[in-house]
């Protein structure tokens, strides 16, 4: 039996795997794609750590900024731990060879890492590798996993956790290549399955497949989820493709302008404020642009080579000489699997959660740019260590195959069912519905309408199925399962948003525009039989 | 507009009709799957040219589906030298195995002063997204499936040139067999890399470093020290032994 089973092979999963292995555990990492395909590859801007390499900076300032941005909804001890661990985490990444951008300061080691400013930060704090920070961290983690001989099972889709008597014993997976349902027994599990931004299908910077599978699975298994209503909208996604233009574009001095060429907001304010300011312009039928022309071609190619290329490709504009059309779209999910101080899932013993799928209460109502890459590496490692500790005392008696049989039947049922409603249209409808009615600015009437529509969609899900009946490599089936997870999470987001009659961070509600002390709390959801 | 896609089940090209207009190939594939034919199978993730999932061949050339703009009459096929799992989806396990064989990681960390110039030396190589396009374009795989291949060697170059690497020799030693000397320097890999990486140049540089570490071009070596004609190694049947 495996000591630590890591589900999800992005930055959080690989960090957890490496830490668990280092501690002495036998480790298996399972993911629905190849590790390097994970969403972590998309992170551009940087990773926060108060190194003070450029400006004066202190861990206490990093903590302060994070708490301020969280609007009273973070756990200050967890924030302290994450920010305090940041320099040490950068040192670890340096030791495995992450190619960070450098300063010319004739120093040694991490003191040479260049740092840039991100919104809401009181210093130049984000370490970066041009605008490929996530990619380069992810690939270096992966190389290190190969070095350490960590086992991978790619292209396995998590179906359900096996949780007899509140303690996790393993999980069931669909082997995407063969179509076979498998059970994997483990003493501890680390969930690292990423966020749920893709519920906003068509209106998100996230990759296809960021559908909150792990969070839905935990909910089904009796674990708790929390703060689901807090979804961060990134102010600057390309208008037509929703591809992200990193916040560092503003950090480096980019302006936001409307059609009249006027600036209308301090670009370095936190994301929620900037996103709302842009949204307000759009409501007045103003188109909004990002202007980086004054930075000059050379500096743009130096700092933001990826964005320059993406603008040319998807928007047909050259940022060196033209304005970039943008709009705010769903970007990051602050809520997720509810965990305690050890990152153990509330409600499921032996199951830990790290990264975007987990709500470790470090981002609260609004995440600071650069804090997610920090969280996935620092807390990914912490989760891996804790999972190992749990595995030392956990029973090695495997669970029976009740869940496996149930899931096998369920998959067979999906194959044999005739489908009369195309779930792809529903997926698109759900994305539109969420952007329209559960978006940047919310209103109770619309939220209630959205809830009704989601319930109707859940009912019509009975008529949905797959038209590809091939057992092997069935992407149609995977997308259907992902959509079902998204639909399962949808009401948790809406009902928490309805309950929260106030405005706080990323959650902004018309008629309740102020923060209300009564709501300075987390909404935790859990199913009880 | 019409495009043709190679379907694995029938091994024939199937025609699909798309609305006119300039769109990325990936959007076209998604459109086909959602609205016309849910059995069409391909892989995708970020749609922003950075996750490396979506590489395919278009009219015989490797492209990222998310950054290639579809044109009428395009013929879409899966990558070469990978076993096809279904339609455009291929098995990348073997290609990834080459990373392990080449031991492309930091062998032994040593603290070093690093400057922007040091970072620049391998900046391009660390842009690699492991899309496997170069592997599909490399003609050596047609004759030698065990070749380590362009991206693994580019990655070996990355670590071997890092000032933090305290044991570059191990990497160099591990890329000698089926490695740097088996490349024909044809440059096909460089031509198709969507990230503008130049594996051919990296391999050339690695050859130089290999020589510095005392390795030799094996084809050169075998010319001098006896090929099979001379029964060279002293084992087995020796035609000159005079039975
Ligand atoms: C465009 C973009 C730019 C960003 N820029 C920054 C930045 O500059 N700085 C910053 O700090 N943050 C940034 N972020 C946020 C950050 O990248 C993510 O929050 C972070 O990478 C999440 O890492 P993760 O390991 O938790 O999840 P992911 O990287 O999403 O990995 C999830 C893993 O789980 C697997 N998985 C999911 N479901 C299943 C299932 N059912 N079965 C099996 N496996 C499954 C996936 O295949 C994947 O391997 C950005 C995000 C985006 C989208
Ligand atoms: S070197 Fe280029 S073509 Fe080859 S895998 Fe890397 S990014 Fe793809
Ligand atoms: S240059 Fe070498 S590695 Fe690149 S395609 Fe040609 S033979 Fe292959
Ligand atoms: S979908 Fe990620 S590279 Fe094309």
TrEMBL record, chain A:
Signal peptide: none annotated. Gene3D superfamilies: FAD/NAD(P)-binding domain (3.50.50.60), Fumarate reductase/succinate dehydrogenase flavoprotein-like, C-terminal domain (1.20.58.100), Succinate dehydrogenase/fumarate reductase flavoprotein, catalytic domain (3.90.700.10). Keywords: Flavoprotein, Oxidoreductase. SUPFAM superfamilies: FAD/NAD(P)-binding domain, Succinate dehydrogenase/fumarate reductase flavoprotein C-terminal domain, Succinate dehydrogenase/fumarate reductase flavoprotein, catalytic domain. GO terms for biological process: anaerobic respiration. It holds the Pfam family Succ_DH_flav_C. This is Succinate dehydrogenase.
TrEMBL record, chain B:
It catalyses: a menaquinone + succinate = a menaquinol + fumarate. PROSITE patterns: 2FE2S_FER_2, 4FE4S_FER_1, 4FE4S_FER_2. Gene3D superfamilies: 3.10.20.30, Alpha-helical ferredoxin (1.10.1060.10). Keywords: 2Fe-2S, 3Fe-4S, 4Fe-4S, Iron, Iron-sulfur, Metal-binding, Oxidoreductase, Tricarboxylic acid cycle. Binds 1 [3Fe-4S] cluster. Residues 120-148, 173-202 form the 4Fe-4S ferredoxin-type domain. Pfam families: Fer2_3, Fer4_8. Its cofactor is [3Fe-4S] cluster; [2Fe-2S] cluster; [4Fe-4S] cluster. SUPFAM superfamilies: 2Fe-2S ferredoxin-like (SSF54292), alpha-helical ferredoxin (SSF46548). It comes from the Bacteria. Belongs to the succinate dehydrogenase/fumarate reductase iron-sulfur protein family. This is Fumarate reductase iron-sulfur subunit.
């Amino acid at each position: 039996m495996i000591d630590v089973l890591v589900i999800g092979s992005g930055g959080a999963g690989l960090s957890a795997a490496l830490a668990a292995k280092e501690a002495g555990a036998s480790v298996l990492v399972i993911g629905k794609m190849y590790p390097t395909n994970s969403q972590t590859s998309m992170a551009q801007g940087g990773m926060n750590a108060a190194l003070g390499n450029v400006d004066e900076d202190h861990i206490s300032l990093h903590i302060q900024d994070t708490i301020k941005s969280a609007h009273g909804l973070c756990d200050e001890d967890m924030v302290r731990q994450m920010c305090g661990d940041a320099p040490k985490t950068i040192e670890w990444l340096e030791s495995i060879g992450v190619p960070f951008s450098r300063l010319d300061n004739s120093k040694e080691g991490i003191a040479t890492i260049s740092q840039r400013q991100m919104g809401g930060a009181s210093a130049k704090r984000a370490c970066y590798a041009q605008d490929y920070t996530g990619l380069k961290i992810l690939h270096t983690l992966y190389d290190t996993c190969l070095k350490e001989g960590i086992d991978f099972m790619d292209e396995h889709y998590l179906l359900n956790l096996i949780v007899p008597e509140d303690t996790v014993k393993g999980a069931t997976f669909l082997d995407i290549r063969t179509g076979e349902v498998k059970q994997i027994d483990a003493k501890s599990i680390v969930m690292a399955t990423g966020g749920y931004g893709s519920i906003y299908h068509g209106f998100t910077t996230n990759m296809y497949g960021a559908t909150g599978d792990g969070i839905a699975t935990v909910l089904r298994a009796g674990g708790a989820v929390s703060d689901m209503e807090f979804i961060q909208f990134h102010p600057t996604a390309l208008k037509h493709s929703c591809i992200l233009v990193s916040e560092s574009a503003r950090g480096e001095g980019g302006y936001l302008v409307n059609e009249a060429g006027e600036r209308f907001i301090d670009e370095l304010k936190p994301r929620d404020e900037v996103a709302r300011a842009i949204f307000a312009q759009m409501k007045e039928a103003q188109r909004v642009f990002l202007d980086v022309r004054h930075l000059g071609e050379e500096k743009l190619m130096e700092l933001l080579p990826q964005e320059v290329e993406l603008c040319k490709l998807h928007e047909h504009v050259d940022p060196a000489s033209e304005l970039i059309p943008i709009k705010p779209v769903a970007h990051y999910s602050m809520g997720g699997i509810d965990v305690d101080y050890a990152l153990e899932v509330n409600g499921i013993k032996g199951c830990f959660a790290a990264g975007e799928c987990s709500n470790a209460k470090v981002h609260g109502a609004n995440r600071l740019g650069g804090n997610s890459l920090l969280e996935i590496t620092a807390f990914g490692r912490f989760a891996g260590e804790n999972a190992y500790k749990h595995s030392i005392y956990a029973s090695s008696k495997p669970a029976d195959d009740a869940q496996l049989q149930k899931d096998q039947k369920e998959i067979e049922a999906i194959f044999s069912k005739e489908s009369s409603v195309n779930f792809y249209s529903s997926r698109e409808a759900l994305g539109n519905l969420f952007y329209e009615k559960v978006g940047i600015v919310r209103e109770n009437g619309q939220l209630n309408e959205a809830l009704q529509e989601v319930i109707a969609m859940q009912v019509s899900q009975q008529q949905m199925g797959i038209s590809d009946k091939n057992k092997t490599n069935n992407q149609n089936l995977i997308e259907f399962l992902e959509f079902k997870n998204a639909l399962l999470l949808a009401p948790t987001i809406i009902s928490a948003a309805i309950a929260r009659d106030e405005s706080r961070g990323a959650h902004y509600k018309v008629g309740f525009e102020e923060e209300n002390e009564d709501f300075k709390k987390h909404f935790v959801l859990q199913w009880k039989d | 507009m019409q495009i043709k896609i190679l379907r694995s089940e029938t091994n024939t090209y199937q025609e699909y009709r798309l609305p006119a207009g300039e769109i990325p190939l990936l959007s076209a594939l998604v459109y086909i799957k959602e609205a016309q034919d849910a059995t069409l199978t391909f892989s995708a993730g970020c749609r922003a040219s950075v996750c490396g999932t979506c590489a395919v061949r278009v009219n015989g050339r490797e492209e990222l589906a998310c950054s290639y703009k579809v044109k009428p009459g395009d013929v879409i096929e899966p990558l070469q030298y990978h076993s096809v799992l279904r339609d455009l989806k291929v098995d990348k396990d073997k290609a990834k195995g080459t990373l392990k064989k080449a031991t492309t990681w930091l062998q032994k960390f040593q603290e070093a002063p690093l400057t922007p110039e040091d970072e620049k030396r391998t900046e391009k190589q660390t842009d690699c997204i492991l899309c496997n396009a170069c592997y599909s374009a490399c003609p050596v795989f047609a004759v030698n499936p065990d070749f380590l291949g362009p991206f693994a060697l580019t990655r070996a170059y990355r670590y071997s040139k890092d000032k933090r690497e305290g044991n570059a020799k191990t990497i160099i030693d591990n890329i000698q067999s089926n490695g740097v000397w088996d490349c024909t320097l044809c440059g096909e890999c460089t031509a198709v890399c969507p990230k503008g990486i130049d594996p051919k140049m990296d391999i050339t540089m690695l050859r130089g470093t290999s020589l510095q570490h005392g390795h030799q071009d094996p084809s050169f070596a075998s010319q001098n020290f006896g090929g099979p004609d001379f029964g060279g190694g002293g084992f087995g049947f020796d035609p000159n032994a005079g039975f």
